[in-house]
Amino acid sequence: MRPASTPFSLSMRIAISPGGHVGRRGYRVGHWAALLSVLAAVACADAAATPLEDCANDSPTTEGIAICLDNLFDDAELELINQTKRARASIQAMKGAGARTKASREFEQQHKNFLAARRAECGHLSDRPTTGVGDNQVRDCFIRMTHERLGVLEQAVGKAQPRRSPAKPREPVSTPSDAVYNVEWHLVGLIRDGNEIPLPAEYRATLRLDNDGAVTGKGAVNAFSGEFRLRTAGKIEWAQHGFLTERTAGPPELGSLDGLYIDALERVSNAALAPTGLILRSEDESVTLTFAR
To answer: Buried b vs exposed e over 245-266: b needs ≥16 C-beta within 10 Å?
Structure first.
């Protein structure tokens, strides 16, 4: 049985034009909600094959179907991260600090609503569906709802453009604590949207901040790179609004954790060096990443 898709309410009152500009006129809350409602209705009514059906046609074994669904979910989740990142960058391009702050809060609430609705509709308590043949329906639901969300974001900010390697920062990086730099930090704790994400013992994710402003890291099946600045003590800023990601070899069943890790990392703005390691948090403390040496 395919889980039903029920539209969820949004509270956003900003508009993002295809050119990437965010304005206070044009679209309203109802526009975003209506777009999602239409897409959800079309997804339910359309006779096209679901991700599970596509994987069943392409993969003759139950193990192959599970791997196929894992790959489709990883791809959809990474695309969701990229599209969400573009929307956040568009909001940051708004003129006026007050307008930016309001738009950012409304967008983050909207995204949180989507994640909660996806968990509820698909009958899963976390943002990462578990692996196994018995969970194929759950993963199929996650993929379909993520595609619906991507359709909404594409209507708002347009299709994602090919990503370019971020340019080197022109300003020198301030160095409040050399103990942070040139260390391969290992992720040991992840809280996203106020929920702790369980990290399996076999999952390995790293982060390295170099004193020239370069940041690199990797997860189970993805590597990333970018630039950062530490302008004042305790404040970290990512250049170019995100990272350049690259798919690598690794266990596919752990790949969905990479999307959660990278998305959470891009949302932090506060950094602290504790006796136990490096701690990165978002401004509203809904995201916390804990690293050990």
So the answer is: beeeebebbbbbbbbbbbbbbb
Higher pLDDT, 279 or 156: 279
Say if CB 64 and CB 30 are below 8 A apart.
Answer: no
Question: What does pTM read for this prediction?
Answer: 0.44
Query: Would you state the structure tokens that stand for residue 113, as one six-digit string?
Result: 């609503």
Q: How far apart are CA 192 and CA 166, in angstroms?
A: 25
Structure tokens at 192: 């996203």
Q: What is the 3-state secondary structure (H, E, C) of the chain?
A: CCCCCCCCCCCCCCEECCCCCEECCCCCHHHHHHHHHHHHHHHHHCCCCCHHHHHHHHCCCHHHHHHHHHHHHHHHHHHHHHHHHHHHHHHHCCCCHHHHHHHHHHHHHHHHHHHHHHHHHHCCCCCCCCCCHHHHHHHHHHHHHHHHHHHHHHHHHCCCCCCCCCCCCCCCCCCCCHHHCCCEEEEEEEEECCEECCCCCCCCCEEEECCCCEEEEECCCEEEEEEEECCCCCECEEHHHCCEEEECCCCHHHHHHHHHHHHHHHCCCEEEEECCEEEEECCCCCCEEEEEC
CA distance 270 to 287: 10
d(CA 234, CA 176): 8
Confidence of residue 91 (pLDDT cuts 50, 70, 90): confident
Question: How many residues in total does the chain contain?
Answer: 293
Per residue in 93-147, pLDDT tens? 888 888 888 888 888 898 889 988 998 888 766 666 655 555 788 888 989 999 9
The whole-angstrom separation of Cα 211 and Cα 177 is 10
Distance CA 133, CA 138 (A): 10
Question: CA–CA separation, 288 vs 77, rounded Å?
Answer: 20
